[in-house]
Design goal:
This is Cytochrome P450. The chain is α+β, with helices and mostly antiparallel strands and 475 residues long. It has 20 helices and nine strands. It has a domain of 210 residues: Cytochrome p450, CATH 1.10.630.10. It starts with a helix and ends in a 40-residue tail after the last helix.
């Protein structure tokens, strides 16, 4: 038997084993979950919320698969308040929380963690040594080490990278809008490629130029896996539900199955593993004075091993690129919807002076630009709905009293171990009780008139938990 035939037989064996495991374990898990739910009481069941359209899917399609994000969620908040119950798959009770006091508790309670399904998926995509996956002291050490690369002084040193990519975007757009061409262009796609170029160059030290070369292997694998991550379906909801209860070694076997997002994940891992090998070799040979984020972290005062730093590369690619691209795309969209503000912003930028010492625009003296970014992040945060899971029993304090379906008035809610909780940050940042009756309106001027939301601060930037990739958000 030659090597090719042996590899083929090994591949077929892995596919057969993965298929058998999936077909066997899913029915067993379903039976166990059904029996467990039947004989377990849950106080969350008494919290008011929308009725379920389906026992299999619950309210999940309305919550995470609407035609327009928040189509149901924002209306539910107005009807039921900043804390309510929805049905997950197979009758599971889940909480949706935008109550500010409850959110602060959830962010600071170490027993509130990422759900098992998300943790297992992150292990497959980012690797077990990623700061997204490690916990406890190792997480704190990695996070502290990474913070050295996110200071304002460090970020400003990447200005030439930003300018270079911006000039390439302008050139491509001018070419696409040349006389005789179509008057339409896909702004979002170009911003996706541009932010990928910036992350690769500034953070990782790889110059890929996908703006002018969109068929680059990294761009193809990266956007492929992102497409599956954000174009979800009812079947993906069920798959996520079962993922939480399937052993991780079986999920690794399932990566070799030729359907759904699995080939995309495998392709992304193949490309990023090659990049990680190149970066590890660069660290070993101490190749010069490369000034990228990974090298800055490596040269900082830290006990983190170079191998640990290299393993942050897949996370930087996915978490750093997509959230930034999404917010920038929304900012362009909002500018297009507000031509008068756009014109005033253009005049502010053109009239702004360069700092002679730093060689950059005086960003802090540009109130309209700051107002645009803050309002875009308020309306369209990078992570509007985060899922968490209670690893042990706890009590959730509430800023607003709620009345249960049994008529009981409560200001705190007992949470049982295993409870799924949605942190509705997008909804929180549209609470009329905090942001005013115009909370659903895009209104940059609210940031020019003083503090638009006194009293509650969930994040380090403008009281917003924006979920742009920064170490402080990896909680």
């Amino acid at each position: 038997m030659n090597d090719s035939e042996a590899d083929s037989q090994n591949s077929n064996f892995i596919l057969d084993l993965a298929s058998l495991a999936v077909c066997t374990i899913v029915p067993l898990v379903s039976l166990w979950l059904l029996l467990r739910r039947t004989f377990t009481s849950n106080t969350v069941a008494t919290i008011p919320g929308p009725s379920s359209r389906s026992w299999i899917y619950g309210n999940m399609p309305q919550l995470v698969l609407p035609d327009h994000y928040g189509e149901y969620e924002f209306q539910w908040q107005k009807r039921y308040g900043p804390l309510y119950r929805v049905k997950g798959c197979f009758g599971e009770d889940r909480l949706v929380v935008s109550d500010p006091q409850a959110l602060r508790q959830l962010f600071n309670d170490p027993s509130i963690i990422r759900p098992p399904s998300l943790s297992k998926t992150a292990h497959l995509v980012f690797g077990e040594e990623s700061v997204f996956c490690v916990e406890g002291e190792e997480h704190r050490s990695l996070r502290a080490a990474m913070s050295t690369g996110f200071s304002g002084r460090t970020v400003r040193t990447f200005l030439p990278v930003f300018v270079d990519v911006a000039e390439k975007i302008v050139y491509e757009w001018e070419t696409l809008l040349s006389p005789g061409s179509s008057p339409r262009l896909n702004v979002g796609k170009m911003v996706d490629l541009a932010t990928l170029d910036i992350i690769c160059d500034a953070a990782l030290g790889f110059r890929v130029n996908t703006v002018q070369n969109p068929d680059h292997p990294l761009a193809l694998s990266h956007l492929h896996v992102l497409g599956y991550a954000f174009i979800r379906s009812k079947s993906s909801l069920v798959a996520e539900y079962f993922t939480a209860h399937i052993p991780e070694f079986l999920l690794r076997l399932a990566l070799h199955l030729p359907f759904g997002p699995l080939p995309a994940v495998l392709g992304f891992k193949t490309v990023t593993e090659k990049l990680m090998e190149e970066k590890a070799q660069e660290f070993k040979t101490d190749a010069g004075d490369k000034h990228d984020l990974l090298n800055i972290i490596r040269s900082g005062k830290t006990d983190i091993l170079p191998s640990q730093i290299v393993h942050q590369l897949p996370l930087f690619l996915l978490a750093g690129q997509d959230t930034t691209a999404a917010v920038l795309s929304w900012a362009f969209y909002c500018l297009a919807q507000n031509p008068e503000f756009q014109q005033n912003l253009r005049q502010e930028i053109l009239s702004s002076k360069f700092n002679s010492q730093e060689g950059e625009l005086e960003y802090d003296n540009m109130p309209l630009l700051n107002a645009l970014l803050k309002e875009t992040l308020r309306m369209f945060p990078g992570g509007p709905l985060l899922e968490r899971w209670a690893s042990e029993d706890c009590v959730l304090p509430l800023a607003s009293e709620i009345v249960t379906t049994t008529g009981k008035h409560i200001r705190e809610l007992p949470i049982q171990k295993g409870q799924s909780i949605f942190l509705a940050l997008g909804a929180y940042q549209r609470l009329e009780s905090l942001w005013g009756s115009d909370a659903d309106e895009f209104k940059p001027s609210r940031w020019l008139e003083g503090d638009p939301c006194p009293g509650y601060a969930l994040g380090p930037y403008a009281q917003l938990h924006v979920c742009i990739f920064m170490p402080s958000h990896l909680t």
